[in-house]
Amino acid sequence: MASANMDVSQLSESQQLALQQYMSVTDQDVAAAIPLLQRSQWNVEIAIAKFFDGEGPDLIAEALAAQNAPPPRAARQENLQQSLFDGSIRSSRSRSPPDAAPRIVPQPDDQVIYRPPFLLSLIFTPFSFLYRLLSLPFGFLSYLFPFLPRMFRPSPTVGTTRRTNTIGRKPLKPRDCAARLKREFEEEYGPNNLPLYDGGYAQALDLAKKDLKFLVIILTSPEHDDTSSFIQDTLLSAEVSEFFNDPKNDIILWMGDVRDSEAYQVSTALRCTKFPFTALITHTPEQGSTSMSVVARITGPVPPTTYLTKLRAGIATHAEKLATVRATRSAQQFERSLRDEQNSAYERSLAQDRERARLRREAEAAAAAEEKRIADELAAALALKNKREQWKRWRVQAIPPEPSLDSKNVVRIALKMPEAARITRRFSGDASVEELYAFVECYDLLQSETVGESTKPEEYEHKYDFRLVSTLPRVVYSIEDGGTIGEKVGKSGNLIVEPISDDEDEEDEED
C-alpha cells in the first residue's frame, strides 16, 4: 500500500513500528494514518489522542512533546496492545493512577436522620429540655379535652389549596429503581436487547469485583438535549448492542437516571459534568487487591464507532491483567478445593479409624464383660455347690436312725430314686415331710461310712430339686403343705422321686 507522499517500504524501521501501533488501535487506513503521524512527529501517543479528541492548534507543544518523547521500544507480541492502549488513554491527561470507583449505598429518605451541628445542639439543649417538660402536661390536657388543640389551630384561608410535593420522583429501593428505569426505557424507545443489570449500583460493583468483569456505567438525564439522540443512534445501534451482549467481553451494564437518588449520588461521586455519561470500571490489581477504578470516561454524544473504540481500548488495556488475576484466583481456588478435599478425606479416614477403634473397644469390653459374667457364674455355681455339700453334711447329722420293727407309729415307704434304684425304709409317723425330703437328699452320704462333721452354711437357703409324688391317684407331697409323714402318707406308701427341671422352676416362680 502507498500513501499520498511515500510508500510504507520507504519508512524507517521506527516509523513502520509507529504506523503499526497506530493502526492497531485506530483501525485507520494507511493513506490517512501516515499524514497524521507526520503532523505528530511520528509520536504514537499524540497521534492516537488527535484521532479520538481532534487535532489541537498548539503545534509548539506537539514539537516539544516530539523532542522529549522516548524512542519506540522493540515490539513484543504479548504486550503490544497493552502499551498502545495505555498510551491512548493517558495521552490527554496526566499519568496519575486511575480514579477509584466509589461504592455508594443510598439510604432511603424516610430513614435519614437529620442532626444539627454539635455546637447548635449544645446551645439549644436547655430549650429542648424545657419544651419537653412543658409538652407533657399539655399532652395530658389534650387527652382529657380533645377540643383544646382545635381551638388553637389556625383556620385555613378561603381559596387556598393544600400544597403537595411534586418535585422529583418517588424514592424507591435500588432494585425497584432499576425495574422502573427499564420499564420507562422500553416505553420511550421501544423493546431492546440491552443486558441491563436489574439491581443497584453497589450490587453491580460488588458483582464486577467478585467475577472480575468490566462494569459499564451509563448515566442519563431526560432533560438533556443529547440524551435521546445518544440512546437512539449510539446505545441502541446494532454493533453496540452486540458488543454489550457478547459474553467474551465480560461486561456488566448498569444504567441510571440522575432523577433517582442513587444515580445522582453516582454521578456526583464520578464527577460527571456532562450528559450522557459513560464510565468503564474494572478491577485494578496494581492499586490493591480489592480496588475498583474508573479506567475510561465517555461524555456527550459520540458515534457508535468512536464509542466502541474507546470502550475496547479500555477493556484491552486491562484484559490481560484481569486474565492474570483470574488465573491466580483459579489456581488458588483449585488449591483450596484440593486442600478441602484432602482435609475431608483425612477427616473421613480419621472418623473411620475412630469408629473402628470404638467398635474394637466395645467388642473388647463386651468380651471382657462376658468373660467376667461367665467367671462370676462359675464362681457363684461353685460357691453354691460347696454350700450345698456343706448343708448336706450338716443336715445328714440330724437325720434320725431308722425305727425298729417293734416301734409304734411307723410308716413304711418305698422310694423309687431317679437312678432306677428302689429303696424301702421305715420312718416315724410323727416326723415331718421335710425329714423324708432330707433323707432322699442325703441318701448318698448315708451310704458313705466317712461323713465329717459340719456346720450350717451362712446366707444359704436350701432348695430341693425334686419332689415326692404318688401315683394312682397322683398326689404331690410338698414341704410347703406341712404335716407329718403319717398324716400325708398313712401306714405305707410307694413314692417316686421326680426331678424338677429349670423350666418348671421358672413356671412355679411365675405362678
TrEMBL record:
Annotated region (Disordered), positions in chain: 86-107
Coiled coil: 352-380
Residues annotated as transmembrane: 118-145
Composition bias, Low complexity: 88-104
GO molecular function: ubiquitin binding
Any one Pfam family match given in the protein's UniProt record, by short name: UBA_4
GO cellular component: a single term: endoplasmic reticulum
Protein name: UBX domain-containing protein
PANTHER family assigned to the protein according to its UniProt record, in alphabetical order: FAS-ASSOCIATED FACTOR 2 (PTHR23322:SF1), FAS-ASSOCIATED PROTEIN (PTHR23322)
Family annotation (PROSITE patterns): UBX
